[in-house]
């Protein structure tokens, strides 16, 4: 199946998000090595989960690049989770609206691109099934 420009852009943005999450894991590792953690066990667990999440987001990007629907589905779920984090950053005792916007804007963009990609794939599949 040939992927569209929208799918390619979505894949690249998912890869960028995955690299960003991997950078967060590196930051967590540096904090752990510097002893700047309250609990070593919790820090190691968070580091592992962050690294696994980064690998997952990069895998979603690869799947979208290859035209696989599971990559778009995983990417959409990822964007919803990022939007939940952005909402948390915008509210509460330590609210930081700038950080919330920095998280939310790319998530909304990638979400919209993934939805457009899914619609394009469905239209293409319908055309192929009809023999056009």
UniProtKB/TrEMBL annotation:
<feature type="transmembrane region" description="Helical">
    <location>
        <begin position="76"/>
        <end position="94"/>
    </location>
</feature>
<keyword id="KW-0472">Membrane</keyword>
<feature type="transmembrane region" description="Helical">
    <location>
        <begin position="12"/>
        <end position="32"/>
    </location>
</feature>
<feature type="transmembrane region" description="Helical">
    <location>
        <begin position="100"/>
        <end position="118"/>
    </location>
</feature>
<keyword id="KW-1133">Transmembrane helix</keyword>
<protein>
    <recommendedName>
        <fullName>Histidine kinase</fullName>
    </recommendedName>
</protein>
<keyword id="KW-0812">Transmembrane</keyword>
<feature type="transmembrane region" description="Helical">
    <location>
        <begin position="44"/>
        <end position="64"/>
    </location>
</feature>
């Amino acid at each position: 199946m040939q992927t569209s420009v929208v799918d390619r852009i979505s894949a690249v943005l998912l890869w960028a998000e995955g690299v960003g999450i991997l950078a967060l894991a590196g930051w967590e590792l540096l904090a752990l090595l510097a002893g700047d953690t309250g609990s070593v066990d919790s820090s190691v667990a968070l580091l592992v989960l962050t690294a696994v999440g980064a690998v997952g987001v990069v895998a979603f990007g690869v799947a979208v690049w290859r035209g696989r629907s599971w990559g778009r589905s995983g990417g959409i779920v990822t964007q919803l989770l990022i939007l939940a984090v952005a909402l948390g950053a915008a509210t509460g005792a330590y609210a930081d609206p700038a950080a919330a916007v920095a998280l939310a804007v790319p998530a909304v963009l990638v979400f919209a691109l993934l939805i457009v990609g899914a619609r394009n794939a469905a239209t293409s599949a319908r055309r192929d099934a009809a023999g056009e």
